[in-house]
Design goal:
Blueprint: E1 45-51, H1 54-62, E2 67-75, H2 84-88, E3 95-102, H3 109-118, E4 127-128, E5 131-132, E6 138-142, H4 145-164, E7 173-174, H5 177-180, E8 184-185, H6 193-196
Parallel strand pairs: 6-7
Antiparallel strand pairs: 1-3, 1-6, 2-3, 2-8, 4-5
Helix pairs in contact: 3-4
């Protein structure tokens, strides 16, 4: 019987070398019309989420009221300015992720976290559905101490709900973005992909257990 080998994270020594030059980034968000790169408006905050293929993930968050901008990219690994093809090898250490810039006065963090937990399977290890590899691992990288506290508390609550319904343990990588970064923007064609390709691939949208704040 043929068995698929278990995905393994590279180390900083074994990761692909990447490059020193950033990939080109579009000036504006295709849906929101806002900039894809800083500076952000005063009062907004960043958070980075990984839930498998970033095409479907980004669409969930750009649709939330109070989100200023979103972008697809790579983070959590070692290779500087990786390409999509390099990331797909699993040898960059990065996970496909989405940058979410939001206004906490207009969008409560718990509402954002509800979108995160309910729209992927946080109990899967190194993959989502048929997408397998460390580049599809579930992760969330807060950028403030307050966010980190809230994310950890939300994970505990959601784990209790999952356990009560017979589901497995959460495997989501939770650590400060200061430890997980830096962030690298994905190629232009990945940005707002499902807006430009409405019938494009998306393996998200199921909900195992409802998240309660």
């Amino acid at each position: 019987m043929w068995l698929r080998s278990k995905p393994e994270m590279p180390t900083s020594e074994t990761a692909l070398p990447g490059r020193s030059t950033p990939l080109p980034v579009p000036e504006r968000h295709e849906v929101l019309g806002t900039p894809l790169t800083p500076p952000w408006p005063d009062g907004t905050q960043e958070i980075y989420v990984a839930m498998g293929c970033f095409w479907g993930v980004e669409r969930f968050f750009w649709n939330l009221p109070g989100v200023w901008t979103t972008a697809a990219g790579y983070t959590g690994g070692f290779t500087p300015h990786p390409t999509y093809e390099e990331t797909c090898t699993g040898r960059t250490g990065h996970t496909e992720a989405v940058l979410v810039v939001y206004d906490p006065a207009k969008l409560d963090l718990d509402e954002l976290l509800k979108t995160f937990w309910e729209n992927h399977d946080p109990t899967q290890v190194n993959g989502q559905g048929n997408d397998r590899g460390t580049q599809y691992r579930t992760a969330i990288y807060p950028t403030t101490d307050e966010q980190l506290v809230a994310v950890k508390a939300s994970a505990e609550r959601y784990q209790a709900a999952l356990t009560a319904s017979g589901f497995a343990a959460i495997t989501t990588e939770i650590r400060p973005f200061a430890e997980a970064g830096p962030w690298y923007y994905a190629e232009a064609y990945h940005q707002q992909y499902l807006h430009k390709n409405p019938r494009g691939y998306c393996n998200h949208g199921f909900c195992q257990v409802e998240y309660s704040a």
